Amino acid sequence: MSAESTSTCEKCGATIYREHIDAGIARYEAGKLLCPHCVEEYESMHDSAGGRGTGADEVLDPIAMEEDEGERQSSETQITAFGGVAMGGGQWTDDKWMRPLDPKSPYASRCRTFHCKLSDGAVSFLNGQINDWLDANPNISVKFANSVIGIFEGKHPEPNLIVTVFY
Fold it and tell me: Which of 11, 54, 93, 121 is most buried as measured by Cβ atoms within 10 A of its Cβ?
């Protein structure tokens, strides 16, 4: 391994590899490059001090939030969940949408997004999901669909096939 791919912890002198920095387990804290062990020690010290650290230079001021009452939306239009149910992993329902479906219109009034990992089995399963959804909803007339490859964050960020069906 070349010398360029390693650094030294500014607290204990331990070797820090480029992979540690890329993974975020070694990082700069208070202006110093720290190894994973010193980062853990720094975080435990930082957390035990009520989030303020022990140095006078680390006193944090509260963040002021501006609120414009005129632009505040009702809680029904705000995002309240993220994950399986919010991203279509739960039971799909058409009950909460106010805009009526118009199967005869050439324009889409709603959309549904599906995604899967990039493997033969996952894409085959995705096809089944889309077809099952269409079979279960005969009142839906697909106007067009779009597909892209993008990274989905989870336990590990992975590329996914993302299909959006407009109906």
Answer: 11
Residue 114 phi/psi, 5-degree rounding, is -120, 155
Question: Which two tokens mark 59?
Answer: 């006193």
Rounded to whole angstroms, the Cα distance separating 25 from 18 reads 10
Give the separation between CA 124 and CA 137, rounded to whole angstroms: 20
Judge contact between 39 and 25, C-beta under 8 A.
yes
How far is residue 81's CA from residue 84's CA, in Å, rounded to a whole number? 9
Are residues 12 and 37 in contact, defined by beta-carbon separation less than 8 angstroms? yes
- Which of 31, 10, 7, 32 lies closest to 20 in space, CA to CA? 7
Cα gap 108→166, rounded to integer Å: 6
The whole-model pTM stands at 0.45
Domain-by-domain residue ranges, the chain?
3-55, 89-166
49 Cβ neighbours under 8 A, 6+ residues apart:
none
Q: How many residues does the chain have?
A: 167
